[in-house]
Structures
1.
Amino acid sequence: MAKWNLIIDVAKCEGCYNCFLACKDEHVDNDFLPYSAAQPKHGSHWINILTRERGQFPTVDVANLPVPCMHCDNAPCIKKAGNDAIYKTGDGIVIIDPLKAGGQKEIVNSCPYGAISWNEEKNVAQKCTLCAHLLADGWKEPRCVQACPTGAMRFVKVEDTRVKQMIAEENLEVLHPEYKTGPRVYYKNLYRYLKCFIGGDVAFKKDGAVDCAEGATVALFKNSQKISEVITDNYGDYKFDNLEENSGRYTLEIAFKDYEGKTIEVDLAAGKSVGTILFE
Ligand code: SF4
Ligand code: SF4
C-alpha cells in the first residue's frame, strides 16, 4: 500500500520559517478532530527549524534543518501511550488522538526527536499530523510543504519499494538512524547540516597587484590518499564538503599556472576556512 513520505532538501532550505508559520496558521485556535486539537499560539512548534553556521570568516555558510515529527514506522511514542492514544494510519501517518491522549504527559518525553509538545490548556500531548485533516479532504500535501517557497519539501505517497529506490537515487538519509525508529521523513543533502568542509580561496600576485586565481587546481589528501580535486571558480574559491567533524589532519596541494605548487596541512575541526593561498 502506498504511504506518505516527506522529503526535505537541506541544501534548498533558506530558513524563512514559512513552513512554521503555515503550520501555525492552520492549527492555532483550530480543532481538527479526530486528528488534532488546536495548537497553542506560543510554546509549541510542530516543525522546528534548526540552524547551523559552518566554517570561519571569510568562508562561512549556514544550513537550516527543518525537523517535524518523523512519523516513524517503529515509533516509541506509540509504545509509550496508554489506551491506544497514538496510532499509525494505513498510509503511514502517526496521530496522537487528542481525546484518548488527555492527561498523558509522559508521552512528551517518549520521542527521541523532541517532536511532541505539551498543551497545558488542553491537557494533551501534541505534534505534527502532516495536516491529516486536509489529506482526508483530498489535499496532496500539508500546509508546510505548500508554503515552502524554495521547493525544499516534497510530499509523496508511494509504495515502500519506491521509497527504497528514491533513497538510492537521491542519497536520502534519515536523521539519527541510530534511534532505529524507522522515520518516514527523509533528508537530501543532510551533510550540509551534519558534516564539515575545508574551503578558502586562491589568489596570485602579478605586476604588484593581487587577483583571484581562477582555474587553480586544489587537491585534498587524507593519509597520503587523494580524496578529491576541484578547480577554483572565478573568485578563486574552492570547497571540499561532506567531511566528518574532527576527522583529523588533511593535506591540500594547490597548483596554479606555472607558479611553484604549494602544500598546506589542515587540522579539521567543525569546518575550516584556510583563508587566502597566495601565489607570488
Ligand atoms: S518522531 Fe517522535 S512523535 Fe513522531 S512518530 Fe517518531 S517517536 Fe513519535
Ligand atoms: S518554508 Fe521551506 S525554505 Fe522556508 S524554512 Fe521551511 S523548509 Fe526551509
2.
Amino acid sequence: MNTARQPEAFVTVRHITKRYGDVVAVDDVSLTVGEGHTLALLGPSGCGKTTVLRCLAGLETPEQGHIAIAGTVVFDAERGINLMPEQRGLGIVFQSYAVWPHMTVAENVGFPLKVRKVPKDEQRDRVARILEIVGLSAWRDKPATLLSGGQQQRVALARALVYEPRLVLFDEPMSNLDALLRDQVRIELKTLQDRLGFTAIYVTHDQSEAFALAETVVVMNRGKVETSGAPREMSYRPRTPFVARFLGLNVRGGRAIRTGDLQTGLCYAEVALSDRLTLRGLIGDERPMPAGSSVLACIRKEHVALRKLPPGGLTTHGALIGEIRAAAFLGVEEEYLVDVEGVELRAVQLPIGAQAGDLVAVSIRPEDCTVFLASGETGVAATDEVKT
Ligand SMILES: Nc1ncnc2c1ncn2[C@@H]1O[C@H](COP(=O)(O)OP(=O)(O)OP(=O)(O)O)[C@@H](O)[C@H]1O
Ligand SMILES: [Mg+2]
C-alpha cells in the first residue's frame, strides 16, 4: 500500500475498554480515521458499536485507553485526561431523529449554537446557511413536527452540522427511514460531506450503507474489532468466517483434500464439501492447513454462477450440476437456493428463468472461494444467514 497517500489520522482510538458490570461492552478496541474520511462500524446487535461512539463523544468513560481527535487528546486513562462532551468539538446524529416538537425547524437547528452562546446574528446566519445546504430553507419557521420523517432526519443532520464540527458521529441515522428516503438521505450526506469536509464515524446494521459511505469498514464482534479494511476487499475476500457469515456469504463446512502452491504463488486448497462436491479455493487462514483438516469454504452469492440447462441436455463439459430448490425475485436480481451435489448454496444473479426442480450448470471460480480452518472460529453465528 502507498502509505504516502494516506491522510493523517484525524481520530485515533487506542486500546479502549468499557465494562458494564460483568459485560465487557468494548474490549481493547483501536481504530484510526483519516481526515475527511468515513469509517463505518458494522456488527451484530450488542457487539459494542454504540458504546464506542459514546466513548468518543465523552458520554461514557472507558476504564482503559486513549482517544485523540484533531491532534487533541480528549481521553487518556493513564494520564487522567477526560474532556467534557462539549469540549470535544463533535456532532452526533442518533437513530431517533429527536426533533423537539415545541420548536420550529430553525429553533431546532440553532439549538447547539444557543447553548454555546453564539451571538444572535451569527446564529441566524449559520442556521440559514445550513438549512440552505440541507434543502429546508422554506421550512425554517414551521413547527418541526409538520415535517416528514426524511425531512426531520435532515433537521437532525443540520443540527449536528450547524456548528461545523470537524467530526460527526452517526448512530444508525437512517433506520427509521423507508428505503427510498434512505437512498436520498445517503446521497445528500455524501454531498454534504464533500462540501463541508467533516470526518465521520458511521454505525450501521446495513452493510450496503456502510459500503456506500465509507472508505474503511470495521466489523466488530463481541466488543472486539474482528477485522477492518476497504469495502471491496472486505466483501470479496473476507478475512474470517465470522465476517463472511455476517456479510451473508455462503459458508459451508468440509474437509481439505490437498493444499498447495500453484504457479501463481497463491495458496489453494481442494476441499470436499460432500461425497460428490469438491471445490478449489484460496486459503484465507494464516495457520497451516494440512490435508484432512476441517475447513469452511466461503463464497459470495454473486459468485455462484448458474446457467439453465436445456431439458435433457446434460452436456456441461465438466461443470457441476445443481437442482434449483427455490427462487425469490429481489427486484432486479433473483436469489436461487440450489442443491449442488448434496450441498445447498445460495446464488444471486439476473434471472435465468429457472424454477424449483430445474437443473442448472453451476460454476464457482477458485479465486472466488475462500477457505478457512473451522477450528478456532470466533463468535460463530448459529445460522448460515445472519440477517442484519
Ligand atoms: N448502560 C448500559 N448498562 C449495561 N450494559 C450496557 C449498557 N449499554 C450497553 N450495554 C451492553 O453493552 C453491550 C454493547 O452494547 P452496544 O449498545 O454498544 O451494542 P451495539 O453494537 O450498539 O448494538 P445494537 O446494534 O443493538 O445497537 C451489550 O451487551 C449491552 O447490553
Ligand atoms: Mg447501538
